[in-house]
Design a protein that fits this description.
The strands form eight sheets. An eleven-stranded parallel sheet has the order 11-12-15-18-21-24-27-30-33-35-36. It is α/β, with parallel strands linked by helices. Among the domains are: about 1-200, Glycosyltransferase, CATH 1.50.10; about 525-669, 3 Solenoid (Pectate Lyase C-like). It is about 30% helix and about 20% strand. Helix 5 (about 100-110) runs antiparallel to helix 6 (about 115-130), helix 7 (about 155-170) runs antiparallel to helix 8 and helix 9 (about 235-245) packs antiparallel against helix 10. It is built from 19 helices and 36 strands.
Length: about 675
């Protein structure tokens, strides 16, 4: 009989999938979450309600993962009636039972059909009966052998139940069905027992409370395993909803306050702000891979699985072997499971208001007088305010009225640095160009996110306007291994002076819609297209060094932009092996690049420019020179579609014109 019932369930599930196309709702939870209260009085809603009544077992609960809005045949309805007394596969997992109860409440609010009320109350009784004496709930009730008997926080199962108990015990208006006073009293006791269980299962590390695990043993309350890839661990995801539930309690006890405060501190301690998920899509737009990409100042996320003693994230495949990184497990589990979550950010967002309301002291970060005056020092020996540049940037005020100066002491800072859009008027000031070094080794192949991987590689990424840097070396250390950006500037009115910018292919990327950028007294070296992008940029008194025979610039100047890349009084040099170098080629066909009063070494090819196999570029680019010198300056041998400026034309290339009158004064400071 048991095998027959299982066969019936499988049959119903397969048939319901086949009928799904007949319904306008893709997922059952979408139906329940409808905000149009009047819809629940419609004929369509009543038809769905009949299905929900049929799927409910006599014990009061429902099975999971059923698309109850799908049309049922008469045969299917009869089979569901036969299953009414069956006690298998009834659960609160994946929202089951709790969500059906909510649906029945919404139906009863519009249609006073007593069957809806009876269904809701049967579901409530089921939840009360399923609770352990210690306050926890199993994943399945009646009990199913295996890990299903554990107290289950996984996928917020127990929190969903307790939220029901809370609403009913407080006699709120959330549910339209009002149980008897006797049942209300039972829900109060159930809720209190559940909170007691939560407090007892909060994990301690060396005597300090932290978070919760997805499962806890129903007898010992200790952390417990579930599926092969769900080993005992602290959970960033499940812990969040538990804390939010605790925070919703009016007049919390001292034990609850301690629990919340401890969990909040643990969330702060374990948040990850240097990674973000990137999804790789195939040509059809389907996700075929997930990668965690190192970044800076990313929105916080938390690992789903953390080591009980170290909080270190770990990952598992179906073999149950712990791995240190997501890319070490197979694609099926890597792409088919949520390994990171941002759920705890809601706790951090609400914590201050909760703490003030409940008389809990909110700790504040002490700031030095230097920070208050917008002067911050970074030093690797600990003598400054920070030892990492990114930490200093993260501590800088957003959209300040005055310049924020970050003084960086000598040292090699192996980190990716990002100046976000909100960190405007920020200056990175190195102690010395030779010995203050920012270095990282990302490259196209290492990032491996498809055709746009280049743009994730910068050692330093500048998004904020009015940025400046001086006395620094910025370096991409990945070597000659393809595209690898050292410095990427997106922000407007950026000024870089007395800096060394080192890389190979794609060393310096200058972009941003209508952005204007200024480089003075800098040393820039690379191999191919090592100065590229669509920004308007002026280079003055810079050394541009080619370390391989290739191309210096690859401008992508937008159409109708008056200036692109302009080099004035610059010196073009090369390593001995770089003997045939082009001044530039067009990344986009409206590229503009001009060299004025520059010293061009003998490595510059006589023809000067190349069209990148784009015939249209010869009609639309503007490549030009004026009054240059050196063995590489051969105006008579240049390609016919380039230009030699007249004196009058060259006079237009002033800092005021190139960088616009409205900002020229800023650059002259």
């Amino acid at each position: 009989m048991i095998q027959l019932n299982k066969t019936i369930l499988v049959f119903l599930f397969v048939v319901s999938l086949g009928l799904n196309a007949q319904n306008t709702y893709k997922n059952w939870p979408d139906v329940i979450r409808k905000n149009d209260a009047a819809w629940f009085a419609s004929a369509e809603a009543k038809t769905i309600a009949e299905n929900v009544l049929l799927y409910q077992r006599n014990i009061g609960g429902w099975p999971k993962n059923i698309q109850m809005q799908n049309t049922l045949t008469e045969t299917e309805k009869q089979k569901l009636i036969e299953l009414k007394s069956d006690l298998h596969e009834i659960t609160t997992d994946n929202g089951a039972t709790c969500q059906e109860m909510l649906f029945m409440s919404k139906m009863y609010a519009q249609v006073k059909d007593e069957r809806y009320k009876e269904s809701f109350l049967k579901g409530l009784n089921y939840l009360l009966e399923a609770q352990y004496d210690n306050g926890g709930w199993p994943q399945f009730f009646p009990l199913k052998k295996g890990y299903y008997t554990h107290i289950t926080y996984n996928d917020n199962s127990m929190v969903n139940i307790l939220n029901i108990m809370k609403e009913i015990s407080e006699e709120s208006d959330y549910y339209s069905i009002k149980p008897s006073k006797d049942i209300v009293e039972k829900t109060k006791k159930s809720f209190d027992k559940g909170i007691y269980c939560i407090l007892k299962t909060q994990y301690k590390q060396n005597g300090v409370l932290t978070g919760w695990c997805a499962q806890h043993d129903e007898v010992t309350l200790a952390p417990a395993n579930a599926r092969a890839f769900e080993l005992v661990s602290l959970s960033g995801f499940e812990s969040a909803k538990i804390v939010l539930l605790l925070m919703s309690i009016e007049k919390p006890s001292p034990e609850i306050i301690t629990s919340i405060k401890s969990a909040h501190d643990w969330f702060e301690k374990t948040k990850i702000t240097n990674l973000e998920e990137k999804r790789v899509l195939n040509d059809a737009g389907k996700i075929i891979d997930k990668k965690m990409i190192p970044t800076t100042n990313a929105a916080p996320i938390w690992a789903r699985f953390m080591d009980l003693e170290t909080n270190e994230p770990f990952f598992c495949d179906r073999d149950g072997i712990r791995k240190k990184s997501l890319d070490q497990i197979g694609s099926e589990r890597r792409n088919g499971y949520a390994w990171y979550s941002d759920a705890p950010k809601e706790v951090l967002k609400k914590y201050s208001a909760w703490a003030i309301k409940n008389g809990v002291k909110v700790s504040s970060v002490e700031t030095s007088s230097k920070k208050k005056d917008n002067f911050i020092t970074v030093a690797q020996d600990g003598s400054g305010d920070f030892i990492k540049i990114q930490d200093a940037i993260n501590a800088s005020p957003s959209f300040p009225y005055e310049k924020v100066i970050i003084n960086i002491k000598n040292g090699t800072y192996n980190e990716k640095v990002r100046i976000p859009e909100w960190n405007t008027h920020l200056t990175l000031l190195g102690e010395s160009k030779e010995n203050t070094i920012i270095a990282f080794d990302d490259n196209f192949k290492k990032i491996n996110l498809g055709r746009n991987s280049t743009f994730y590689t910068p050692t330093v990424l500048v998004e904020g306007d009015d940025f400046s840097a001086s006395n620094l070396t910025i370096k991409n250390t990945s070597g000659d291994n393809g595209q690898a950006i050292a410095l990427s500037v997106v922000g407007n009115r950026a000024q870089v002076s007395n800096c060394t910018i080192l890389g190979n292919q794609d060393t310096l990327y200058l972009s941003g819609k209508e952005s204007k950028q200024y480089f003075k007294d800098c040393y820039i070296e690379g191999t191919t297209d090592f100065i590229f992008g669509g920004a308007t940029a002026l280079f003055e008194n810079c050394e541009i060094r080619s370390i391989k025979s290739s191309y210096i610039t690859a401008a992508s100047t937008p159409e109708r932009t008056p200036f692109g890349f302009v080099f004035k009084n610059c010196k073009l040099t090369a390593n001995p092996e770089a003997t045939t170098v082009y001044l530039g080629r067009p990344w986009r066909i409206y590229a503009k690049t001009v060299f004025i009063n520059c010293d061009l070494g003998k490595h510059i090819k006589p023809e000067g420019w190349e069209n990148w196999s784009k015939p249209d570029a010869e009609k639309n680019t503007f490549y030009a020179e004026y009054n240059c010198k050196g063995e590489g300056f051969q105006p008579k041998n240049r390609v016919s579609w380039s230009h030699q400026l007249t004196k009058k034309e060259a006079e237009k290339y002033t800092i005021e014109n190139i960088l616009k009158d409205s900002i020229a004064n800023w650059y002259s400071k």
